[in-house]
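User: Hey, quick favor. My workstation is busy. Could you predict this chain's structure for me?
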Amino acid sequence: MKVIGVKFKDGGKIYYFAPRKNEKYEEGMEVIVETSKSMEFATVAFLPKEVDDSEVVQPLKPVIRIASEKDKEMRQKNLERKPQAMKIAQEKVEKHGLDMKLIDCEFAFDGSKVVFYFSADGRIDFRELVKDLAAVFHIRIELRQIGIRDEAKLLGGIAPCGRECCCASAMPEFKKVSIKMAKVQGLSLNPGKISGLCGRLMCCLSYENEYYSEVYKKMPKIGAEVSTPEGKGTVISENMLKLTIRVKIERDGNIVYKDFELKDVHFKGGRNEEKEEKISDDLKELMD
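Assistant: No problem, here it is.
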């Protein structure tokens, strides 16, 4: 089946749509597509290509048209309405004394509804709030509660590495991350060093996990006794990128530290059967 990939937000998930026949598309081109709820403004993520039928969720909705100047103006007007809408919504939230944090809002392309995104510790009864907002905007109102990771994705920001958050810039969907990934990569299990702006484990832990997981099994444990070309010694550190091991060797009453390539070091056992360590409460919170 021939499909075209579009996304509704920068860094957002890519969805399949049916391209129009004899229509020429370019990556980054703005288009109008039909969704299950209404028409939406989107951006072409990749050009038409054929995919297996099993990868497509039926029925496959079509691309209505390439966005015209009028469409772009309507999109811009919707974006310009956001600040005032957020201000009004915040005033109404305070009026009703609701314990919720407004994150963002989004107007439908055709202006038929507005969706407010918020975060909260528990369930919120916002029925009266919806009535007040509907009386102000005179369109359909939706409130959607989101998690702390979704909040970071919507708001964006600069991550500890100095670049824009992966979730907001280059990661269409959240990837599964775990404390074990940090341990395997030799990172400090200090919550402040392995958590992102959202306060959860950094998404980038999953990027090179496959490589580190394979190398980790081949490396001796820290403190293990190994045989080297220069005698027996104890492992004190390892470099999984260079595939080298630093060994402490006692020789003639002196202690020598030397780096060896993994292939030149012999040892018994590995880490395949290493038991899971107990995780502290601080680390457990990063995984929620």
